[in-house]
Amino acid sequence: MFRIIKKSLKTGVVTGQHPEAAPAAQPVPADAKATTKPFRRSLAIREVDTGSCNACEMEMNALMNPVYDGERFGLHVAASPRHADALVVTGPVTVNMERALKDVYKATPDPKIVIALGDCAITCGQFKGSYAVTGPVERHIPVDVRIPGCPPRPAEILAALEDLRERLGKPAG
Amino acid sequence: MTPSEILQDTFGKAIISASVVHGFPVFVLDKETLPLVAHFVHTHPDLRGSLSLLWAVDHRPREARYELCYLFTLAARKDWLLLRSDLHGDDRLFRSITPHIHAAKWYEREVRDLFGLIAQGHPDLRRLVRHEHWPKGTHPLKKDFSWDTVMGRQEGQYAFRRIEGEGVFEVPVGPIHAGIIEPGHFRFSVAGEPIMQLELHHFWKHRGVEKLFERRRLTDAMPLAERVSGDTTIGHSLAYCQAVETLLGVDVPRRAKYLRSLFLELERLHNHLGDVGAICNDTAYALAHAHCSRMKERIMQLNDRLTGSRFLRGVNLVGGVGCNLAAGQLAEIAEEAAAIERDFSELEAIIFANASLTDRLEATGILKERTAWDHAVMGVVGRASGIDRDLRRDHPFAAYDELPVKVALYRYGDVRARLRVRMDEIHESMRLIREIRARIPQGAIMAEPSRVPAAGEWALSAVEGWRGEILYMVMAGEEGRIHRCKVRDPSFVNWPAIQWAVLGNIIPDFPLINKSFNLSYAGNDL
Fold it and tell me: What is the mean pLDDT of residues B368-375?
């Protein structure tokens, strides 16, 4: 017990100890902001990987670590699309995942927004044109917000989500 | 006797030709005798070959010939051995080795899906990579299949193995999971709590990586290799680079080799730290997870400061590395590593003082040594089940010939053993980083190619990534293009083994077992 307390005291608060995000390459459109108004101070996210290399997933996971701590802004990862306000889609849409993506979109209650995360989700990136890839996310479901990068840094994802809902506070520190 | 002499002695007449290609002994055999020789290599006490890789090549348009290659690692001697047989003309049948060598099971299904070559006598010829909705006759790695074909869709269902009886339930999980993870499907059969059977249905993320390689030149496929499995950027790019450097006759400078080892260890560190935390988190011990992900984040930020990429992208180049580190930066790495190691050691003490945590880990998800051997399991998972293999020691690459590695080895094969392997490897990586800083020579970091490979020439390369052995076979085509690139992430080999590790465990322990394997879906599906 003392060991744990000592460790926590020694570590201190690490939240916000990260480099500032670079200015967003693609600003969040106004109608996406309007759609998210009813969600007020929280955003339940369902992440759907449709063929990414796993780097975008790792950065999404990093968003919830003590350094970025997305929860302090009301960000929450929902286990089911039924509980989600936003779908975060990563990767080019593979032929095998196409149907699953459409099903998830249908299963997510309205109002909802779709965030295409990473270059692959936006343009198919390195996998463009492949027989096993059926095109970027927007070919299959409407996309509201685009966060480019390969992969985008967690600070950039956080900044985009903050921009999406201007009520979110600035990160501490 | 050397392995080659043993084979010559026993099968002298049946061997069509024997040669050594870039250090790999190659025996060409008739397709009828190959299964016999493979079985012999697998079981002979002086060879004990375990199947490391099986791949096919379509030689059209130059020749109407398919080639099948079987790469063995000889456990008794730490050598490689390659068997090859050819299928001429319209011949599409070969004899399966799966009845004797279990590790070939997925490879032969893969060859069938991607090339349309059929392994006769294979016990399970359901589709693997091609999901049921792919039209019949779609074999993407055949040379007459265009890389940008738009596929049609047919109806069909994967036939899962079913257990029927009173009180037996099927629990389907995926492809989309509850956490932020990649897609894959798991089908459990349970009676009450314990798992009676688990069947995997993967390849949801198949992106056609190997076909996309064939559109690139040898020197410009790096961005693709880095994105095979994003968490193993350095491992995959290094394996690709080494194969191409062998083909182009590049003599990589020592300093570049040291830097490659350094970056590989940094990659191992951030992934292992993340895994230790995630394993604890799956037993609901959030404290350790928070500390570990904080440490992992420190390394990711260090990577970003050093190279401009948190995942070390763009670091490896054909010929060397694209990023030199000044003495000050090396000192910064060493300082960070020392601080994180102190931090991590304190956390280890906290983790193992927690009885309710260790209780969840011990005797959970046991992968027996025999099962691991039969499936040719490798990497962290293998070393937790008594498979004493580490390429950094057995076949040194990069700068490991001058950096002796102490290999972590445990025998219990449970979740705790896999956690311990990772913890030991974290300390070993820290030590290696200090060693690299002390020994790194000055000099150039890039070298130029000295030759042009002939069409059809190939090279193999092997790298011990943080998950395990990453293998690349690159075959040159006309005018510096790639004719064929076989990518093998360790996940492809270790996935089937998880089906055995979970038996008798309860479903709530599955996430924990799965996390302790932590295999890549992207690297598996390609």
Answer: 93
Q: Which tens digit of pLDDT belongs to each residue from B131-140?
A: 999 999 899 9
Q: Which of B149, B176, B213, B491 to mutate to test the interface with A (most CBs of A within 10 A)?
A: B176
**Conformational region of residue B386, where left means phi above 0, alpha means psi within -120 to 50, and beta covers everything else:** left
CA distance B219 to B338: 37
Q: Give the pLDDT confidence score for residue A74 in this predicted structure.
A: 87
Strand B168-173 to A113-117 pairing:
unpaired
Strands B93-95 and B118-120, how do they pair? parallel
Residues of A in contact with B294 (CB under 8 A): 11, 14, 65-67
Cβ of B126: how many Cβ atoms within 10 Å? 14
Domains of chain B as residue ranges with CATH: 8-120 (3.30.460.80), 168-201 (no CATH), 209-525 (1.10.645.10)
The domain A31-164 is placed in CATH, from the list 3.40.50.12280, 3.40.50.720, 1.20.1530.20, 3.40.50.40, at: 3.40.50.12280
> Helices B254-281 and B286-307: crossing angle, nearest 10°?
160
CA distance A21 to chain B (A): 13
Q: What are the pLDDT digits (tens) for B405-427?
A: 999 999 999 999 999 999 999 99
